[in-house]
Design brief:
Number of helices: 8
Shape: globular
CATH architecture: Up-down Bundle
Order of helices and strands: HHHHHHHH
Radius of gyration: 16 Å
CATH topology: Four Helix Bundle (Hemerythrin (Met), subunit A)
Number of strands: 0
Largest sheet: none
Distance between the termini: 29 Å
CATH superfamily: dinb family like domain
CATH class: Mainly Alpha
């Protein structure tokens, strides 16, 4: 199997992981519930989608975020952050305003854009370090208190690392957490 085919299948698997581990098990109207002060399923999906959008589109491709195609307003949240180190009150505020149906559309739009790019991209460029700081500044993206370290960390990494870890493995990790949240809400995965 070619690297390009493998990585596209992994992103398709990420969508499957969300459906299996929370999103597909819990009715959308319950996605904002936070049992035991855990991050909600909605927040987890938003965080994973925002991270992938930022890494793939802004940092790796030097292009606008999918978020900027009108999703910011439709989501109900004006945040351009990705949620790293978000305070408890910010999590609660997020869950109070997010529109889960639009969130799911945003997630699918990010996945579609990622897979479309991967199908034709010259992935040998991923061996390089992208101009992370410059691209984040030009996109007007910032990080909340406690997450300031992240752009510096990302700036030290190759494009391949950024594609494999924060945009892919990170999502699998958080969707595993969503499975725990779903179980606490009374839903068991298949």
């Amino acid at each position: 199997m070619e690297w390009q085919d493998w990585i596209i299948r992994e992103f398709e698997g990420l969508a499957w992981a969300f459906s299996l581990n929370g999103g597909g098990q819990v009715p959308r109207e319950r996605w904002t519930e936070r049992p035991d002060a855990s991050p909600s399923i909605a927040w987890t999906l938003w965080h994973v989608a925002r991270t992938q959008d930022l890494i793939v589109n802004v940092i790796l491709r030097g292009r606008p975020q999918v978020l900027d195609a009108g999703f910011g307003e439709r989501l109900g949240s004006s945040s351009r952050e990705i949620g790293t180190s978000m305070a408890e009150t910010d999590l609660a505020n997020f869950d109070a305003v997010i529109h889960c149906e639009e969130l799911e559309r945003y997630w699918h739009a990010v996945l579609t854009e990622t897979k479309s790019w991967l199908a034709t991209a010259d992935l040998t460029t991923l061996d390089q370090r992208p101009p992370t700081q410059e691209r984040l500044r030009s996109a007007g993206v910032w990080h909340a208190a406690g997450g300031e370290w992240l752009p510096d960390f990302w700036g030290q990494q190759s494009g391949e690392f950024l594609l494999r870890f924060p945009s892919l493995a990170h999502g699998y990790m958080h969707f595993g957490e969503s499975q725990v949240v779903a179980a606490r809400l009374g839903y068991k995965g298949s």
